[in-house]
Amino acid sequence: MNSKRRDFLKIAGLTAIAGIAAPSAFNTLLKGEAIASAGGQHGAAVPTGKRWGMVIDVKKFSENPDLAEKCVSTCHTIHNVPDFGNKKDEIKWIWVDSFQHVFPGDSSHYKQPEALNSMPILALCNHCDNPPCVRACPTQATFKSKDGIVGMDYHRCIGCRFCMAACPYGARSFNWRDPRGKDANGQPFIKAENPKYPTRMRGVVEKCNFCTERLAIGQIPACVEVAAQSKALVFGDLNDPNSEISQILKTTFTIQRKPSAGTHPSLFYII
Amino acid sequence: MYGKGRIIPALILFLGLVTSPMWYKSGDAGKMPKPEKPKDYTECVAPTQYMRTSHMVLLNEWRDDILREGGPRIGKTANGTEYVRSLQNGCMKCHSDKKKFCDDCHNYASVKPYCWDCHLQPKEAM
Amino acid sequence: MIEKALKGSTGYGLWMLFLLSIMGVGGLCYVQQFNYGLGITGMSRDVTWGVYISQFTFLVGVAAGGLMLVLPYYIHNYKAFGRIVILGEFMAIAAIAMCLMFIIADLGQPMRAMNVLLHPTPHSMLFWDMIVLNGYLILNILCGWVVLQSEYKGIKYPKWIKPFIYLSIPWAISIHTVTAFLYCGLPGRHFWLTAILAPRFLASAFAAGPALLMVIAMILKKTTKFDVGREAQDKLVTIIGYAAMLNFFFLGCEFFVAYYSQIPGHMHTLDYLFWGLGHGDQVYNNLVPFMRASVVMGLAGIALIFVSRARQSDNLLVVSCLLIFFAFWIDKGLGLVLGGFVPNMMDQVTEYYPSAQELGITAAIWATGFFILSILYKVAISVKLEKDA
């Protein structure tokens, strides 16, 4: 009898505590949830902190045919990206492709402007808000930093290439061979080394880093700098409503690559 | 014990062979390395003793802090001199001769860090 | 007990020498790959996983297949599997060992493999795959060895091993589920992005694993006095046959969803694998003969395996099991992984052909697996035959 009463008191006490504590605990949980799942909400994400983004005005690149290639070569030169001269080993951080390849699936209807497929369109890492590559990486060698940039730590990468399978944009390249090597004619794969920036080593994955190293010293990404005069590329903080990029996005219709993949890219295209 | 006559001497012989490098070089520390310090600078980012034993830890800390936490790229020494927290653009600015500074000790200690698989050493010393 | 692996017939010795020679050649290929980089393989920026990862995926299935013996014997107390269950457990050990070797062979920086433990990342499926694969390896070594050792000593296995045996059953499911999750959780790869990938993996595993086991059991029956018994054989036929049918059912579901919905992304890879994918003015179809052969062999295997039982023909049984094994080897060890990369994320097509070195390394890892398997089976069978005598 006695022990039964003790049990009853215990249960009653616990219930009372739970009854008082549960709602507040639940609220706390929900609040935490709301912040954590900002990217997963239906609709726009809640802006917090900085988030770097880029607008690519494809029309301006068409008016200025050499500009896109200039962006590519500038990026690849300052980041010591090797050129192996073949498609199999290819490494690229930013590249030019046609509309039907940058936006596969969006070009399936047969009556569209002919000019569309000859437009040079830049493709690079989308620095997704919800990056599948970061989810896949088993060592956190690729990660999302606070400013929205999806970064890589080449020291940690084990070269499993899971991120390459995961990226819906083909933005990642693998060092299939030594990037510091030379071709059959004795020409180095990295034509002119930039002494300020490292190279990579064999067996790691690499990609565009949104020029983190330049942002840190107050410069804009190299490709944006090249395209600055024509405003073909606009770079800025997506979370700052007064930034130039936010103003453009507010007033201009833009599209994104594979929005249905739920990755929330930081790149926007004006076609 | 079965086969005692052979096992014990064989074990002793084995141990002797395995430890032979130690016997061979016992009491001789070899030629101590004398890494060449930069002439124009008197102060490093941390005390010499710490740098000697833990520079690799510091480099890893810089990397993780800058890359992952968005930490500052510029640091300050005890005397207030600013420096770049970077191997390639910081350390090598003063310690510009990799062969005479880095390799001297690394070869002695027989460690082969993979820093230089990616990071470029200053041109003039290559 | 292990000393039983050291003494054997001339045939056993020659077989082991043969395996060692393949391992040697493959080892040299690996040295080349280690020095040059993975560029020595046929993999490319577009097809980033090749035979290594596809063999790995298939072999996880072979390992999980052991479940089809452990479950009836230990849970349902199905006595007829008494002689064969140890073969299933030991095959899982060899298969997992191969899986781990294939992963290491595929890493760009194999020396850093331990980074997965140093920086544990629960949101990565590869992290979980590492845990379940190593766990399953340990479980099978433990259970197989302890049970066999008890038999060797002529006593019943100790009670404490039972929980581990029970644990190994859901664990077998988990290894293949997590391996499927490696693929089916990736946005943008339509061919893999299907909820029935894990069930399909398991169905093919429960057919291919026991099929290989059956072939080996028949070889042992011919070359040694070891006979798994008619009842066990007949029961395995049922298991293999139904699992294989289930696999084709799942494959049919994939076809229906793709071609009835007419969603291009869902159709492209199936087009590429079974009919050839027209792209620009070219048709890409290097896997078509294999995939078609896989379907024909699989269906023929299912029909023949039941005929073999009706006629009690061991020869026909071996043929049908080989058909099923190779059908699923092509389906999963070739088409599934390679197909996922065609077309690539930019809707372009790159076909993959493995290089000679890559095939050498692959052969060597298979040889290593069979080397481990032979040692384990030699021990197991010696113990069993000793008990019979």
Task: Please provide a written account of the structure.
The complex is a heterotrimer of chains A (271), B (126) and C (389). Chain A is α+β, with helices and mostly antiparallel strands and 271 residues long. Chain A has a single domain (50-270), classed as Alpha-Beta Plaits, CATH 3.30.70.20. Chain A contains nine helices and nine strands. Chain A has helices spanning 2-36, 58-63, 67-78, 99-102, 132-136, 162-166, 212-215, 222-226, 244-251; strands spanning 52-57, 94-97, 121-124, 142-144, 150-152, 173-174, 205-206, 233-237, 267-270. Mean pLDDT of chain A is 86; it is low at 28-41. Chain B contains six helices and two strands, in the order αααββααα. Chain B has a two-stranded antiparallel sheet with strand order 1-2. With 389 residues, chain C is an all-alpha fold. Chain C is 73% helix and 2% strand. Chain C has 13 helices and two strands, in the order H-H-H-H-H-H-H-H-H-H-E-E-H-H-H. In chain C, a hairpin with a 2-residue loop joins strand 1 and strand 2 (282-284). In chain C, helix 7 (161-184) crosses helix 8 (197-223), helix 9 (230-261) packs antiparallel against helix 11 (288-311) and helix 10 (264-275) crosses helix 11 (288-311). In chain C, 49% of the residues are buried. The mean pLDDT of chain C is 93. At the A-C interface, helix 4, helix 5, helix 6 and strand 6 of A face helix 5 and helix 6 of C.
